[in-house]
Amino acid sequence: MKLFLDWSSYQNSGMGDAYADIPKNGGDFAKAVAVCIGSRQCEQGDKGVMCPSFKATGNPALSPGGRVKFLKAALNSSDEKALLDPELAEAMNLCVSCKGCKRECENEVDMALIKAEYLAQRRKSRELSLRHTLWAHLPKLLAWPLVRPLLALRNRHAWLARIGERLLGIAADSPLPVPSEYGSKEKPATGIAFDNRSTAPAREVVLFVDTFNRHFNSDVAEAATNLLNAAGYSVHIAGPDDNRTTALCCGRTYFANGMIDRARSEAARLLQALQPHIDAGRWVIGLEPSCILSLRDEYLQLGLGEAANKLAARVLLLEEFIAKEQTAKRWPLAFKAEGGRALVHGHCHQKAVGAMKAMRKVLKTVDGLDFELIESSCCGMAGHFGFEAEHYAASQAMAELALFPALRAEPHAAIIANGFSCQQQIANGGFGKPEHIAKILYAAAIRHGLYSNAGAAMQQQL
């Protein structure tokens, strides 16, 4: 079996253990599957992220342990098409790649990574559907001028949404996000003029503006840029390399649809563009958890060499960077909120890498902000999962486990959520559009009086 990802870190897993039950096919990938010891910890319905599909259904076959059983059977089979087994396909399709098992399983079963390899293996025998091809190429499609009016038209007319469901399997009941005018014009994120009264010396950082914030939430990128500028940082916007005009992308949409070679190509292009900044010792700061954490996780399995390791060591989410600078007493800005209550929903990947600690720490420094982190699993959107007709009900069931009830319990509270998918699920559920922490902190810095009239104008926009 030719493997698409680098599984060499598992080469010694289970060796010498008579009970490891390593499948006979699949090499180091099989060893990664076999790290599951069948403890059934993934079948717990209490706190934590793992496992949203099991929590929503109560079906053990839809837990990481259940998926491992199907995978072992397929990898032990002499039939090359065993990975196409319908029961295995159903179990893997309902994995939302939340990465909860990697953090919460005692043996750190990485089902999200296993699913990526599984999808790539399936593609050898069965090509992607048109729908999944569209999801995979989304970063490229969003650059097309007609995409924005077409999506807006689809959302406005129910009959078009129904046609889309019949032809492509995209749930008619789920509104699709529409790119902003700003994003559709590929305008780079730049700072708004303001009076920077910080006395901190200029320091250089890199802001990686991902596909989703570039096209859908450009105001988040602007807020982050201005916030960092105000704190005394000179911000480089990670852009295309000198030979291509296509915007940089982490490649996650390809990765999530089993197109590993395309994901690797995008990752290599991003690495090349960021290499000078990494060599100069600059931090790379990101806004979208699923994208920026790919640079710290999935990139290490793409066979990109030492450059990927060096990048992973210099990549932080915005809140992680601010928390780090606050701890080192290098962050000069103070924050003041208008008051009131806020509920915070963390993206699954933030929770999986422990990044919610940084979010809590930074929000605690906002004077007057009364906030609470919602104890929940996956919101259920999970990239394109919640937009798919056959998964729409499961997506809603995941949201109803804890997230939606928490939001209903406090209808007047503001909502903070960094993940683009999470924002869509919450907004589509009728709870209003959540704000990214970048906008919350930028507005709070303005309220603390660090800006001139230009900053006050921005505060009104927020």
3D architecture notes:
This is (Fe-S)-binding protein. InterPro entries: 4Fe4S_Fe-S-bd (IPR017896), Cys_rich_dom (IPR004017). It holds the Pfam family Fer4_8. This protein is an alpha/beta fold. Among the domains are: 116 residues, Alpha-helical ferredoxin (Fumarate Reductase Iron-sulfur Protein, Chain B, domain 2); 133 residues, no CATH class. It is globular, with a radius of gyration of 22 Å.
Spatial order of strands in the largest sheet: 2-1-3-4
Number of helices: 25
Mean pLDDT across all amino acids: 89
Proportion of residues in extended strands: 5-15%
Please state the structural category: alpha/beta
| Largest beta-sheet details | 4 strands, parallel
The total of beta strands comes to 9
Distance between the termini: 53 Å
Q: State the shape.
A: globular
Low-pLDDT residue spans? 182-201, 451-462
Rg, rounded, reads 22 Å
As a percent range, the share of helical residues equals: 40-55%
